[in-house]
Design brief:
42% helix; 271 residues; binds nicotinamide-adenine-dinucleotide; alpha/beta; Rossmann fold; 7-stranded parallel sheet
Length: 271
C-alpha cells in the first residue's frame, strides 16, 4: 500500500464487492492508490478476522481504514450480492455517500464444498443453488444495480471476476458447478460489453488462477504446493497484487480500447 504521484483515477468513484479481504481488498487498495474514492461492499466487513494471515497482512485494519490512510474517501457497506435488494440498496448508498459512480468490480464469489461435493453428477440441488447464486446471480445483480448509475456519464468501467475454472475443467471434474457459474459470468460480461459500449463503458472479466490469498495459501499447502506448481508455467502462485495489476490496466486509459474480453491472471496454468 503506497501513495503514488500517478493518480489517473482522481475524481472517480469505485465500488468493489467482497473487498473485506483477499483479492477484493487488493483491488480496492489499488483503486485508491490510483486516486479513486472507493466503496467497500461485503457481507462481512471484518471477514479478514476469519483468516489469521489476512488479518496479519492488513495489520488488523479493515479495508475502509486502509483506504482512509491513503487519503481517499470511502464507505463500508454490509450487503449480500445474492440478494438483489441488498446489493441494489448498497449501490444506491454508495452514490448517496460519494456522489456518483464510475467503476465497479464484481469480485464477491467463490467455490463451496469439497471436490466430491462439486462433482458434476454428485452436486446437490442446494450446492448448485448456493454456488450459482454467489457467483453468477450475484454478479448480474451487482452489474444491473450499478449500470443504472454509470450509464449516461459517458465513461465507465465494469470488471467481473471469473476463474481459470471457468474455461478449463479440473482433472476428475471437481468444482464443476463453480466452473459453470464462472463460465456464465464470462458470457454475461461479453453481452454487457455490447450493450454498454455505446455509452463509453468498457466491461471486461478477470480470470485468476491459483492466487495465494491468506485463505488459499493453507489449502495449497494441504494439496501439495510442488504438485500444483508443476501445472503453472511461471512456477509460482499468483498474488492479490498480480490481480490488481491486471485491474489497473482495465480501469485506466491503458485499457481504453479493450472491452468484452476475459483476461487470465494465472501464470500460464493448466488445471
Ligand atoms: N483466490 C484464488 O485463487 C481465486 C482464483 C480464481 C478466482 N477467484 C475469485 O476471486 C474472487 C475473490 O476470491 P478470494 O480468494 O479473494 O476470496 P475470499 O474468500 O478470500 O474473499 C471473498 C470475500 O467476499 C465476501 N463474500 C463472499 N460471498 C459474498 C456475498 N454473497 N456477498 C457479499 N460478499 C461476499 C467474503 O465475505 C470475503 O470477504 C472470487 O470471486 C473468487 O471466485 C479466486
Amino acid at each position: 500500500m503506497s501513495e503514488r504521484s500517478y493518480q489517473p483515477l482522481a475524481g472517480k468513484v469505485a465500488v468493489v464487492t467482497g473487498a473485506a479481504r483477499g483479492i477484493g481488498r487488493a483491488y480496492a487498495i489499488r483503486l485508491a492508490e490510483l486516486g479513486a474514492d472507493v466503496a467497500v461492499v461485503d457481507r462481512n466487513l471484518r471477514s479478514f478476522t476469519e483468516v489469521a494471515a489476512e488479518e496479519e497482512a492488513a495489520g488488523g485494519r479493515s479495508t475502509d481504514e486502509l483506504i482512509v490512510a491513503l487519503g481517499r474517501r470511502t464507505v463500508g457497506l454490509t450487503a449480500d450480492v445474492t440478494d438483489p435488494d441488498s446489493i441494489g440498496a448498497a449501490i444506491n448508498e454508495v452514490v448517496a455517500a460519494l456522489g456518483h459512480l464510475e467503476i465497479v468490480v464484481c469480485n464477491a464469489g467463490g467455490g463451496s464444498g469439497s471436490m466430491t461435493d462439486s462433482l458434476p453428477s454428485h452436486a446437490t440441488a442446494q450446492h448448485v443453488e448456493t454456488v450459482v447464486q454467489r457467483n453468477l446471480v450475484g454478479t448480474i445483480s451487482t452489474c444491473r444495480a450499478a449500470a443504472r448509475h454509470i450509464r449516461g456519464q459517458g465513461w465507465g468501467r465494469i470488471v467481473t471476476v471469473s476463474s481459470m475454472a471457468g474455461n478449463m475443467p479440473f482433472r476428475g471434474g471437481g468444482y464443476s458447478i463453480y466452473g459453470a457459474a464462472k463460465a456464465g459470468i464470462e458470457m454475461y460480461t461479453r453481452s454487457l460489453a455490447q450493450e454498454l459500449g455505446p455509452h463509453g463503458i468498457t466491461v471486461n472479466c478477470l480470470a485468476p488462477g491459483y492466487i495465494a490469498t491468506g485463505r488459499l495459501s493453507v489449502m495449497f499447502d494441504n494439496l501439495g504446493s510442488d504438485d500444483l506448481l508443476e501445472s503453472v508455467a511461471l512456477r509460482r502462485f499468483g498474488t492479490p497484487d498480480d490481480c490488481a495489476g491486471a485491474l489497473e490496466f482495465l480501469v485506466t486509459d491503458l485499457g481504453a480500447y479493450v472491452t468484452g474480453t476475459v483476461i487470465p491472471v494465472d501464470g500460464g496454468s493448466m488445471t
